[in-house]
Amino acid sequence: MKTHKSPLIAHLTELEKKAAHQEITLKDVVTIFGTDGHFVLILFCILPFLQPIPLMGLSTPFGLLISLVAFFYYLQKPPYLPKRWQNKTINHTTLLKIAEGAEKFFKKLERFIKPRLEFLFSEPFKSINIIFIILNAILLALPLPIPFSNAIPAWVILLQAIGHLERDGVLVLISYIQAVLSLIFFTTLAYGLKTGIEFIDNSMPTVAAI
């Protein structure tokens, strides 16, 4: 059975070739990936947050950046990068390690990921997908010192990013399920916080009376 040739792997191979002969900036990386640049940038931004321990110092700027990149994709404009980041050179060795590692990882997934259910990338689902990414990027940006508060929205964004890069609607459907779990998690968190504050407020008169 012929396996689907991943466009992401093709881009990573091109990136490795260019990095072997010249210095690469973040702007170059986005240019190399062309129309896929938005989701490649989102993919690289989301990777540190897939583990359960929240990265409070990083989640806010990266969450806001991801939401901006997703919004620019919806507007069909080039991916947003702050000017001071555009010409930032990526260490040659580090870039090759990242590209080679990512290529090996996606080659293992290549047999399972393929273009399907592509109607999920057209309207109205296109708008729904971007809303899910932006909302979960905002949740990621919240500076919460609570386990999984980064990871749960990060997996929604990861599934959306890979789904768009590979045109795999099954991954997008899975991201919808993960988005529901994300909504339940943060709703429960907000309710618990509200209940805790109300309990403290109600306890204050009793404590004062003692």
From TrEMBL:
Pfam family of the protein (one): ExoD
Superkingdom of source: Bacteria
Transmembrane annotation, as ranges: 29-50, 56-75, 130-158, 170-193
Keywords: Membrane, Transmembrane, Transmembrane helix
Protein name per UniProt: Exopolysaccharide biosynthesis protein
Organism for this UniProt entry: Pseudobdellovibrio exovorus JSS
Lineage of source species: Bacteria, Pseudomonadati, Bdellovibrionota, Bdellovibrionia, Bdellovibrionales
